[in-house]
Amino acid sequence: MAVDGRTEDRTKLEHVLASRVNFFGVAAGSAALAYVEQKRPDLVLLSDDLPDMDGFEVLRRIREDERFKDIPVIMMTMDQTQKAEAASIMAGAFEIVRKPFVPIIVVKKVEQVLELEYLHRHLRSEVRRQTHLAEERLASSQRLFEETVMALAKTIDAKDAYTRGHSQRVGRYSRHIAYKLGWTEEEQQKLYFMGLLHDIGKIGVPEAIINKPDRLTDEEYNRIKEHTVIGSEILELVAEFPELTIGARSHHERFDGTGYPDGKKGSEIPIYARIIAVADAYDAMTSKRSYRDILPQNVVRAEIAKGRNSQFDPEFADVMLQIIDEDEDYMLHER
């Protein structure tokens, strides 16, 4: 679109450009703004001198509208000074053409601007397309990771006849504690996956020991304890998620330093493991065992409270106590 109050200049522009582009000319700024609103042209040739308003005012209105601010504008002026050129560029013009026109210069500048606009538009389109593809691949990878983790968690739980769904519940309880603490969604999800895989080391423990209904011997208990180290070594192979090893190795550490495998205490124990430890103990008490049913909620609460500062980090034990108190119908247990 060409916007020029001088009929002879519009006619001259149409003569040199009509055979190359879809040309439309108007004389007034108001008509130009109306056309932009209706048709959104690919390029505007805009005179600084119009009968109804200043050409810079037209340019300002185009630039202020989010829908049209990217339309390239070539300012046309009879002012031959560098100041006029600088004013046009500062106002948001892409180029400047001086009157009287030199036809070949007008043609070349219009072609160059339209070519750049074409490349820019297609670049934006390609960026959007590639971004969409990348997001799809990322989502697909995330789904594959989640499905793999879930499959592993179910494999772990399948070894123990009395802890079906244990890993999933520990993951959910851990995430809920993180939610109560105001952690970000990303941190909550990270903790959930760590909870899902905290017992993965049991893959390396014989089922006969895991499912033994009688009291374990010292040797058998030591084999059970090895699952923390085995799990950590397995998850070290997941280079993209190094934190996974934390939940597997340290969820049996105790706040007073009497846990295993490393005997860490207090803040030496990674924060993720301190949360998983509370969630793990809660699920152990609220799940059926070969020798007992689900413990009553008041008993579970008393045990969590008793474990503050000894087995559990008191901060996370208190959050678990809050969750228990809010669970008035005792819904959080194995089903």
SSE order and pairing:
Elements: E1 2-3, H1 7-17, E2 25-26, H2 29-39, E3 44-47, H3 55-64, E4 73-77, H4 82-91, E5 95-98, H5 103-158, H6 166-180, H7 185-196, H8 207-210, H9 218-225, H10 227-235, H11 244-250, H12 271-285, H13 297-306, H14 314-326
Parallel strand pairs: 1-2, 1-3, 3-4, 4-5
Helix pairs in contact: 1-5, 2-3, 6-7, 6-12, 7-11, 10-11, 11-12, 13-14
What is the gist of this entry?
The chain is mainly alpha-helical. The protein has helices at 7-17, 29-39, 55-64, 82-91, 103-158, 166-180, 185-196, 207-210, 218-225, 227-235, 244-250, 271-285, 297-306, 314-326; strands at residues 2-3, 25-26, 44-47, 73-77, 95-98.
Mean pLDDT: 91
Classify the fold: give the CATH topology of the largest domain.
Answer: Hypothetical protein af1432
- DSSP helix fraction: 55-70%
Pick out the low-confidence regions.
none
- Compute the number of structural domains: 2
End-to-end Cα distance, whole Å, is 71 Å
Shape: rod-shaped
Largest sheet: 5 strands, parallel
The CATH class name of the largest domain reads Mainly Alpha
Individual helix count: 14
Give the oligomeric state. single chain
Pairing-aware structural class of the strands and helices?
mainly alpha
Strands of the biggest beta sheet: in what spatial order? 2-1-3-4-5
> Over all CA atoms, what is the radius of gyration?
35 Å
CATH superfamily of the largest domain: Hypothetical protein af1432
* Helix and strand element order: EHEHEHEHEHHHHHHHHHH
Report the strand count. Answer: 5
Range of strand content: 5-15%
- CATH architecture name of the largest domain: Orthogonal Bundle
